[in-house]
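Let's sit down with a protein and look at its sequence and fold side by side. We need material for that, and I hope you will provide a protein of your own picking. Once you have written the record down, we can walk along the chain together.

***
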Amino acid sequence: MTEPKKIKHIAVAGNIGAGKTTLSELLSNHYNWDVLYEDTSTNPYLSDFYNDMHRWSFNLQIYFLNSRYQQILGIRQGDATVIQDRTIYEDAYIFAPNLHDMGLMSERDFANYFDLFKTMSSQVEAPDLLIYLRSNIPTLVNHIHTRGRDYEGNMSLDYLKRLNERYEEWIKGYTEGKLLIINVDDLDFKNRKEDLGFIIDKVDKELYGLF
C-alpha cells in the first residue's frame, strides 16, 4: 500500500479585502502550519504603484511574480506544511491582465510578463488545496476601510469590480488541483468561532475526507 501524498501547500485566494491574510493566520494556528504572507510591507513598488499605476504596473507585477515563485520553490523543497496568502495564478490571470486591459500596462510589457509566468509556472506544482474566498464589493470595501492601509485609499469601486469579475472567470476554469470555494459575505471568521469552525470543517473534508 502506497503512502498518501504529504500535504505541503495550501493557498488562499481572493480579491483585495476578502480576508486572505486573516484566514491564513487562523488556519495556520489551528493546523500548526507555517504561513507565508503576501509581501506588502517590504514591497518597494506598492505605494508608488497606487500613486501612478501606469508607470509602476510592470515593476510591481514582476516583483510579485518573483516573490510568489520563490515562495513556492521554498514550500516544495521544505518539510513543513505551508499555507500561502495569495497565489502566483492571481498575479498572472487577474492583476496583470486587468492592468493591461485598463491601459495601465503596455502590450509589450504584458506579453513579456506572461511569457515569464508560463515558464515559472511550468516549473512548480499547484497547491494541494486552493481556498477561494468569494466576496461582494460592499464586503471588500468594508474590510479595506477597516484595516486602513494608506496606499489603498485611492482604490476605485470600478477597480475592485473588475478584479472580482476576473476572479470569478479564473475560478470557473481552475483545474490545477483541489478547490474549496467559501462565500465570506455572511461570515465573520475573525470574530466568531462558529464561522471559523464552519470553514475548518470544510478544509478537513477536502484534505482528509472528514465529514
Notes: Residues 53-77 form the longest helix (25 residues). The beta strands are 9-14, 34-36, 82-85, 129-134, 178-183. The chain has a mean pLDDT of 89.
